[in-house]
Amino acid sequence: MNRHPKLDENALSSDQQAIHDEIVNGPRGAVVGPLRVWLQSPGLAKQAQALGQYARYDSVLPQVLSELAILVTARYWSSGFEWSHHVPIALDAGVPRDAVDAIAKARRYAFDDAEMQAVFDFAVELHVLKNVSDATYDKALALLGQQACVDLVGICGYYTLISMTINVFDVPDGEGLVLPSLGVGLSEYFSA
C-alpha cells in the first residue's frame, strides 16, 4: 500500500500556501520529502519546519557535528530519504567516508577528532539507550558546552520526527543511496 500522500501545489489551502512559501523562501529552497507530507497538516508543518530550520542551519553545533548526528539518527531509524540526502552534505562538511560507511552498517567508529567522537557517542546512546550515560554526557559537556548538548538532543529529536514521517508515509529516497538492510537487534546497533 502506498501511504505517500500526493500534494497538488496548485491546490493548496491558504495555510498550506503560507507554509509552502516560507519553506521555499528559506534556506531549504524547496518543499521535498517529509515536508510535503507535513503540509497535509499545516499547523504541524509550520512548527516542524521552524524547528527543522534551527536544527539544521542555526544550532550552535558546527555543520560537521550536526550532520554526524543526523546520519546516526537516519541509520538508527533506517530512514532512506534522510540518509540519501544527508550523506553528501556530511561528506562535504568533513565527516570521514570511513565513518559514513561504518554508520551505514550501524557499527561503532573511532574518530580522530574528540568532538566528533563525543557527538557520535552521545547520538548513539540517546537512540539506542533512550538516554546518555553520565560519562558520555560529561564528555560532550566539557568539549561542546551546555547549549550544544541541548541542541544535539534537539537535532536527534527533530530527525527522529523526520525519520518517523519518512517511514510511516513511505517517502521515497530518490537519490539511490540505499541503506544496507540490518539483521540486528537494538542491542547490536553500533557495536564493535
How does the SSE layout of this entry go?
Elements: H1 14-24, H2 34-38, H3 42-58, H4 63-76, H5 80-93, H6 97-104, H7 114-129, H8 134-144, H9 146-168
Helix pairs in contact: 1-3, 3-9, 4-5, 4-7, 4-9, 7-8, 8-9
Task: Characterise the protein shown here.
With 192 residues, the protein is an all-alpha fold. It folds into 2 domains: 8-58; 60-188, Up-down Bundle (AhpD-like). It has helices at residues 14-24, 34-38, 42-58, 63-76, 80-93, 97-104, 114-129, 134-144, 146-168. The longest helix has 23 residues, at 146-168. The radius of gyration is 17 Å and the shape is globular. 38% of the residues are buried. The model has no long low-confidence stretch (mean pLDDT 88).
How many DSSP H or I helices?
A: 9
Alpha-carbon distance between the two ends:
37 Å
SSE order, one letter for each helix or strand: HHHHHHHHH
Structural class: mainly alpha
Main sheet overview: none
Strand content of the residues, in percent?
A: under 5%
User: Which term fits the overall shape?
Assistant: globular
What is the helix fraction of residues, given as a range?
55-70%
Low-confidence stretches: none
What is the CATH superfamily classification of the largest domain?
Answer: AhpD-like
Give the class-level CATH name of the largest domain. Answer: Mainly Alpha
Gyration radius, in Å = 17 Å
Number of domains: 2
Average the pLDDT over all residues and give the rounded result: 88
Number of strands: 0
CATH architecture of the largest domain: Up-down Bundle
Q: What do we call the CATH topology of the largest domain?
A: AhpD-like
